[in-house]
Structures are given as structure tokens and as C-alpha cells.
Amino acid sequence: MGIVAGLDSSPDFTRIVVCDSDTGAVLKQGYAPHPVDRPEKGGRPSDVDPQAWLLSLGEAAGGGLLEGVQAIGVSSQQNALVPLDAQGGTVRPALVGGDKRAQVAAADLVDALGGRRAWAEAVGSVPQAAQPVTKLRWLARTEPDNARRTVSLLQAHDWIVWQLLGRPMRRATDRGGASGTGYWSAATGVYRPDLVELALGHQAALPEVLGPSEPAGTTPEGLLISAGTGETMAAALGLGMGLGDAVVSLGASGSVMAVHPEALVDSTGMITSLADATGMHLPVVTTLNAVRALRGTAELLGVPDLEALSELAMKSTPGAHGLVMLPYLEGERTPNLPHTAGTLAGLRRESMKPEHLARAAFEGMLCGLADALDVLRGRGVEVRRIFLLGPAAELPVVQAAAPALFGVQVVVPQPADYAAIGAARQAAWSLGVSQGTLDPRTPPAWQGAAAQALEPGDELAVGQAVRQQYVSVREQAHPGAFHA
């Protein structure tokens, strides 16, 4: 078939991979940071001029990187809202990331529609500060002039695709990106323009939602551009996820998502119902506390980093001599306990040692994510294999404990930009369909991620005992938290 490229525009950089369209083998790569001023060390600005994305794209593609490429797929950071005026210009810089300014707007929107259940049933998610629908409410409340000038809405990957195509009349998105907006339902496959009006105060034009293998268009030079998608959906496509697969992501907060054939409407709002980039669905459950609980424990113990904390925890044994940590340091979303604090239980003279506390922190983090997995399993989602992502997935104690606590095979992929690879796979799919060589319902069969596979093996019973110890403490501290 030829050569395709995947472009991933993350919050901090653009990465481009050029791949063989038949096998997915990465032939060339490019990288460039976004030319964006950081407000503080480690901080991410909540306002970004979208031109920064194009500048880093041009730099990453330098040196003839895209010569011979026949199709490009675009993956980009989710939740970045680009409001446009009547001429197609940006009304203001894009609102990106988990914008804390919008937290009040999120609560405001939840109440305006009649509560969490109403939102979950309408669009499969409850407004959070990061979502575009919430940013629209913030815009209407704090920048009413800009809100009035806003006549159409795009997300980051929509805007980049539109620019690559020369800003045509038609603006497009995909199911994956649309499902994160808060005004498109993965269950019904349609927009809820009334929710845009509820948030913004008036209607706005929304991009056409394309099918998974449908191209967004062709550049004047004849380069095919696929529909594009959000980073989460692109990474799932790059990893080669299918039915029976889940991803557990270990960031400061944690998330669990799985491939499922249908949308899950969860009246509690615990499950966010996203669409994937293949025509399937990606129900997601998040926890507020993952690696942040490890970092807090490392600081408490005076340990310099997570590697040292892992080494310390390996000196303990499964169950940490009865020490149990409920890692709800920032409150918690799963279970829904926004105002609670963490709990340390099982303190006895023999358990009061640094290595046991270190072990309890790792087990608490993984058991919290196992709770999130059980929310999906309880709704009929099959999980036979778990991809474990994030730098903490490389830690020896995580790899030792996770398979037994999750109860299935755990796969730790080798580090790679799976979002960019997924974008390239989408481009190859669109190209193949346009050439009549691929089925529009089935993406190209690329080789999956190179990974280390870890089995529960003989430790399964031990893991179940540790899990039961954790559940007992959770039920005692927060009775009925998962049934309220």
C-alpha cells in the first residue's frame, strides 16, 4: 500500500511517526516541543494559541520527513476547545487541559440539567472541569463578549485537520473526539445542541462526525487526511486493543478503560462512556489517586524517588503485615467520595516499619484501580488482559503485585508513542479503504505493541487475600460506597 504518517499533538509537543502501511513498522520519526511559555515550573497553561500546534508540527516534519507519505492521521490532546468566529478565526486562545477555572462551571452545569443522572443519561458523562461543554459555560460566564462571537466549535485534532486541508467549508471530527465533548452521545451517535446552548447561551456550528475509516479530505497535493481522533482513542488503536482488553493508566490520578461493543450508560456517573476509533466503545472509570499516593508516601518516608520506594516495598511481603492504605488523598471519584481523606488501617507494632508502609501504598493504589476495574466488570465488560501504562508500570513492586491483584494477565508495553502509531494506523485504514484494499469495518492488522507479559500464576490466591483485606477496610471506613 505504501507509507503513512501519524501525528500526535500532545499538550507539550508534536511527534510524527512514518510507518509502513502494511505492517505498521516505524520507518522514521520527528519531534518538536510546542513553542509555549510555561506559567510556572511543571505547570501547563490553560490558554494556548493553536498556531503553536502548527509551528511545532512544521518543525517536527522538517528535513523531508513526510516525503513519499500518502496519508496522514492526526491524534491530539483531548478536551482542548477552539472557539471560532464567523470568519473561522479563533475568538480567543484555545482552552486546554483540566482547567481548574472551570470547576464552578462544572457544578453549575450539573445542576442546570437536573443532576448527575440526567447528564449520564444524556451524553454518557457528568461534566468535569476539563470537558469542552464545561469550558463553554465558563466562557459564557466570564468572557460574555467572546462567547457571543463564538459561532462554531472545534477540538484540537479537528482544528489541525481543518488547517492541513486548507480550511475547507466542511469541518469534521470523529466519534472518539466527539464523545469527550459533553454534547455528543456515544450511545445514540448524535449531538445534543441543546446542551451547547445550555452552556454557551446560544447555538454553535459543530463538526460533522465521520465514520472510523472515513477520510476528512484530501489536500490540494493529493495527500489523504483521515478523520483523526483523541489521544486516548489513538493510543488504544496503536496498542492494538480489542475485545477483552483493558488499559490501566498510572498517572498522578489513575484510569481504567476497556473495549466494549456497546455504550454503557451509568446513572451514577462513575463510568464515562467514550467511543473508540474503530466503531466500538471505551468505557472509562477514573480514580483521583494513583501515583500521587506513592509520591506522598515517599515524602513521608524521606525516600528520594519512586524507584527507591519500590525497592523498600519489595522488602515487605504481600499484605504488608496487615497494613492497609485507602489512598483517597484528594478525595475520590471511584468510589464517589469527593470530600473524604485517606485512611491507614492495621497499625500494629510489627507493621509499623517503613517497608510495610511502602508496600501498603503500592497495594492501595493498585486495589483502588482494581475497584475501578470491578465497576466495569460489574456492567458486563470482559477483561482478559490488561495493558499497564505509565512510568510507574516499570517499577518491580508494581509488576510483582499487579497480576495477582487484577486477576488476569498484565502486559507492560515497551515505551513508544502509541497515540502517533494509532493515528498512522487510522491513516493506513482510510488509505486502504479509498484504494479498495481494506474493509471499512476492520482496521489494518498491524503487529501489536512489543511488551512484557506477566501472569498471576501461583500468586492469584495471595492477591485475592490482599484485595479482600483492602475491601474490608474500605467497607468499614465507607460502608456502601459502591452502592449508594
Automatic annotation (TrEMBL):
Q: Which SUPFAM superfamilies match?
A: Actin-like ATPase domain (SSF53067)
Q: Which InterPro entries match?
A: ATPase_NBD (IPR043129), Carb_kinase_FGGY (IPR000577), Carb_kinase_FGGY_CS (IPR018483), FGGY_C (IPR018485), FGGY_Carb_Kinase (IPR050406), FGGY_N (IPR018484)
Q: Where would I find the Carbohydrate kinase FGGY N-terminal domain in this sequence? A: 4-230
Domain of life here? Answer: Bacteria
Q: Which ranges carry the Carbohydrate kinase FGGY C-terminal domain? A: 246-430
Keywords, A to Z, come to: Carbohydrate metabolism, Kinase, Transferase, Xylose metabolism
Molecular-function GO term, any one: kinase activity
A GO BP term here is: D-xylose metabolic process
The record lists the membrane-crossing segments as: none
Family to which this protein belongs: Belongs to the FGGY kinase family.
Do you know which PANTHER family this protein is assigned to? Answer: SUGAR KINASE (PTHR43095), XYLULOSE KINASE (PTHR43095:SF5)
- Protein name (record): Sugar kinase
Organism from which the protein derives: Streptomyces nodosus
